């Protein structure tokens, strides 16, 4: 039984940017609520691009119309033995094991173009676990976004856990608001049923949330002046 | 990597082979019922064409899926001299929507087969798997319940053993040594060098069936 989890991403106010001070303040909020830091975490997302014989993975305009423009790979911190691949346009999530990237490498039909890491500290807070992290390209420190996971250990039903997660989110929002930061955390709302996922939470749900979170992060981040 | 040899045996001698394998391995046989789908990349996908196999294990209460990529065989003078094929292999478990997934990625179904039979998995110098199966084709798409044998009187015997770059010689030796025990019943060789059925198979099978399972012939 996998505990239910919500993802949230930092949405900066109009004209504001994402910076590491916001990350520090968010970690401070976790500690002020009584959270005890107990380690680091890292989830990675890989962008694959189709290799075609008439364009060989060139700009998106050369993509074959029948092939997915975006193929994601997700390696979750809590399950290094698993790997997920998502075709968002088709609402398709495949669960495979850690050897799957090697299969894709052998096939040479899709290649990784960009790798992003979501990484940071985690905090235990009663029945909750908070993971607050930054989104950075692999081998770079350029901050692309800030997000967090809120995991609730006692429940794995999405519906049954909704009330307690909303209550926690309200408390979190109030705590963060006191810092007067230029922006707010927004819940990453994913349409799990579109992906054929049930009310029972699973690692596939988490992979889908990361894919949705990334999409929202990319839309929210403004160019730093 | 894996080491692999193959051979064929007449269906009438499969029971004798089972007796021999049971005696040699000391483990119970496992049922094999695998739906194998071979997918190939569409015309424009990939710098070079690619092929991937999806295996659905129908012998389990809940079917499970595996993605399998068979790579190139080891080449060179050394490879020519050994009687076992050594090739790269990558496998990954997958959720049941894996066929839909590869269709979405631009792969097409080239052919599908149903392999029915049994397997013995044991350790004898290496982790060896001996699989004896009839290969069946389906008259309609995915109709595994209507499958019929491709070659009714003949079954395929395959011996595989996982290997790594630093131990494949030992694995090759273990597989070759094991093949010797089966020599009276069938000849095993690299998949591209099949040699047909063995003349002594009938006598060997009769001996095995009359001896009630003794492993000596």
From TrEMBL, chain A:
<dbReference type="GO" id="GO:0016592">
    <property type="term" value="C:mediator complex"/>
</dbReference>
<keyword id="KW-0539">Nucleus</keyword>
<comment type="subunit">
    <text>Component of the Mediator complex.</text>
</comment>
<keyword id="KW-0805">Transcription regulation</keyword>
<comment type="function">
    <text>Component of the Mediator complex, a coactivator involved in the regulated transcription of nearly all RNA polymerase II-dependent genes. Mediator functions as a bridge to convey information from gene-specific regulatory proteins to the basal RNA polymerase II transcription machinery. Mediator is recruited to promoters by direct interactions with regulatory proteins and serves as a scaffold for the assembly of a functional preinitiation complex with RNA polymerase II and the general transcription factors.</text>
</comment>
<dbReference type="Pfam" id="PF08612">
    <property type="entry name" value="Med20"/>
</dbReference>
<keyword id="KW-0010">Activator</keyword>
<comment type="similarity">
    <text>Belongs to the Mediator complex subunit 20 family.</text>
</comment>
<protein>
    <recommendedName>
        <fullName>Mediator of RNA polymerase II transcription subunit 20</fullName>
    </recommendedName>
</protein>
<keyword id="KW-0804">Transcription</keyword>
<dbReference type="GO" id="GO:0006357">
    <property type="term" value="P:regulation of transcription by RNA polymerase II"/>
</dbReference>
<dbReference type="InterPro" id="IPR013921">
    <property type="entry name" value="Mediator_Med20"/>
</dbReference>
<dbReference type="GO" id="GO:0003713">
    <property type="term" value="F:transcription coactivator activity"/>
</dbReference>
From TrEMBL, chain B:
<comment type="similarity">
    <text>Belongs to the Mediator complex subunit 18 family.</text>
</comment>
<keyword id="KW-0805">Transcription regulation</keyword>
<comment type="function">
    <text>Component of the Mediator complex, a coactivator involved in the regulated transcription of nearly all RNA polymerase II-dependent genes. Mediator functions as a bridge to convey information from gene-specific regulatory proteins to the basal RNA polymerase II transcription machinery. Mediator is recruited to promoters by direct interactions with regulatory proteins and serves as a scaffold for the assembly of a functional preinitiation complex with RNA polymerase II and the general transcription factors.</text>
</comment>
<dbReference type="Pfam" id="PF09637">
    <property type="entry name" value="Med18"/>
</dbReference>
<dbReference type="GO" id="GO:0003712">
    <property type="term" value="F:transcription coregulator activity"/>
</dbReference>
<keyword id="KW-0010">Activator</keyword>
<dbReference type="GO" id="GO:0070847">
    <property type="term" value="C:core mediator complex"/>
</dbReference>
<keyword id="KW-0539">Nucleus</keyword>
<dbReference type="InterPro" id="IPR019095">
    <property type="entry name" value="Mediator_Med18"/>
</dbReference>
<dbReference type="GO" id="GO:0006357">
    <property type="term" value="P:regulation of transcription by RNA polymerase II"/>
</dbReference>
<protein>
    <recommendedName>
        <fullName>Mediator of RNA polymerase II transcription subunit 18</fullName>
    </recommendedName>
</protein>
<keyword id="KW-0804">Transcription</keyword>
<dbReference type="GO" id="GO:0006369">
    <property type="term" value="P:termination of RNA polymerase II transcription"/>
</dbReference>
<dbReference type="GO" id="GO:0016592">
    <property type="term" value="C:mediator complex"/>
</dbReference>
<comment type="subunit">
    <text>Component of the Mediator complex.</text>
</comment>
């Amino acid at each position: 039984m996998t505990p239910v989890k919500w993802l949230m991403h930092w949405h900066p106010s109009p004209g504001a940017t994402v910076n590491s001070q916001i990350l520090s303040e968010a970690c401070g909020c976790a500690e002020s609520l009584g959270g005890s830091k107990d380690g680091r975490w890292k989830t990675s997302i890989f962008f694959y691009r189709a290799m075609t014989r008439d364009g060989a993975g060139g700009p998106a305009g050369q993509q074959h119309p029948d092939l997915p423009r975006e193929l994601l790979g997700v390696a979750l911190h809590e399950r290094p033995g698993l790997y997920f691949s998502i075709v968002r346009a088709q609402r398709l999530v495949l669960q495979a094991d850690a050897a799957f990237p090697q299969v894709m490498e052998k096939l040479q039909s899709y290649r990784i173009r960009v790798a992003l890491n979501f990484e940071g500290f985690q905090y235990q807070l009663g029945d909750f676990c908070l993971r607050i992290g930054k989104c950075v390209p692999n081998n770079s420190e350029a901050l692309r976004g800030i997000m967090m996971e809120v995991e609730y250990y006692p429940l794995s039903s999405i519906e049954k856990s909704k009330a307690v997660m909303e209550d926690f989110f309200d408390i979190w929002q109030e705590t963060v608001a006191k810092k007067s930061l230029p922006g707010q955390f927004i819940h990453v709302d994913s349409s799990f049923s579109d992906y054929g996922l049930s009310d029972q939470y699973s690692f596939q749900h988490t992979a889908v949330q990361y894919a949705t979170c990334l999409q929202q992060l990319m839309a929210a981040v403004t160019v730093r002046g | 990597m894996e080491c692999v040899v193959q051979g064929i045996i007449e269906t009438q001698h499969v029971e004798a082979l089972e007796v021999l394998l049971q005696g040699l391995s000391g483990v119970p046989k496992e049922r094999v019922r695998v739906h194998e789908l071979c997918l190939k990349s569409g015309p424009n996908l990939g710098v070079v064409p690619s092929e991937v196999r999806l295996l659905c294990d129908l012998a389990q209460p809940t079917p499970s899926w595996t993605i399998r990529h068979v790579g190139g065989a080891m080449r060179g003078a050394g490879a020519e001299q050994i009687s076992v094929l050594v090739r790269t292999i990558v496998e990954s478990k997958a959720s049941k929507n894996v066929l839909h997934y590869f269709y979405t990625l631009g792969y097409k179904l080239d052919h599908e087969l149903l392999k029915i039979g049994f397997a013995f998995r044991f350790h004898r110098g290496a982790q060896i798997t001996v699989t004896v199966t009839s290969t069946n084709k389906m008259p309609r798409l995915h109709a595994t319940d209507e499958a019929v044998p491709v070659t009714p009187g003949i079954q395929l015997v395959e011996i595989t053993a996982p290997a790594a770059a630093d131990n494949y010689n030992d694995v090759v030796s273990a597989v070759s040594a094991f093949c010797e025990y089966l020599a009276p019943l069938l000849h095993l060789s690299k998949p591209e060098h099949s040699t047909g059925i063995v003349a002594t198979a009938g006598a060997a099978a009769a001996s095995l069936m009359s001896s009630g399972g003794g492993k000596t012939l």
